[in-house]
Design a protein that fits this description.
Elements: E1 20-25, H1 31-44, E2 45-46, H2 50-59, E3 62-68, E4 71-85, E5 88-101, H3 110-120, E6 132-138, H4 145-148, H5 163-176, E7 180-182, E8 187-189, E9 197-198, H6 206-210, E10 222-229
Length: 238
Amino acid sequence: MTNPPNAPPPPPGRDLGDFTFTVKEAAELTAADRATVHALFDVAYRQANHAYLDKSLGRLRYIATAMRGDTPAGFALGETRIMDLPRLPDSLVTLAGICCIAPEFRRRGLFGYLERLALGAGFRPEYADRRRLACGRMAHPASMRTMGSMKSIVPRYGVEPTPWQQEVGAAVADAYGVHAFDPRTFVCIGAGTPIGYPVMEMDVTDDEWRVFAPVDRDRGDALLGIAWMPDAPPGWDT
């Protein structure tokens, strides 16, 4: 396995030795690179909206890719940045972007590993001990499962976000460049056309689907999820 400098170790129990990983700035993608990323998007989503992906490439700084030999296996977008959030200036924020894995390479741990590579590209040693806000726009409940285990996650089914949480959610949505944002549901409202429909089997529960009830995928909606690590600042839930 070839890794970028300072890359994290592979997930426990996962063998990624047959993949080559690359991280670069999205602005540096060549026309051939972009075509490869679009092709992976096409196999991961039905009605894949290339304009949406291109907008994401313009918003998030880094893209991590995986190849097995000459075969593209997957990619993930992401960025770690310092933001002045409402009532929280100079906050460390990780913005996870779209991640696509070719069907034949799924369930190998690539999704999480590529995401970590993209988010880690701009990570500095002085960030290590800082509280950070993890963020992501979710297409379906399965993509929210890891974040869903965090105690500070917003949104939660049946719990309306506090005014502070709504303010922070709106600021994060603006960083992603969303068309419109509903702070009560944390739905990133689409521009009227689908982003795409995931081509995957989802083993999710009815409870996991409930928080996605306001999401209209035909309109191009996604659900914003945010959670503090390792813990939330004082007063976050009040």
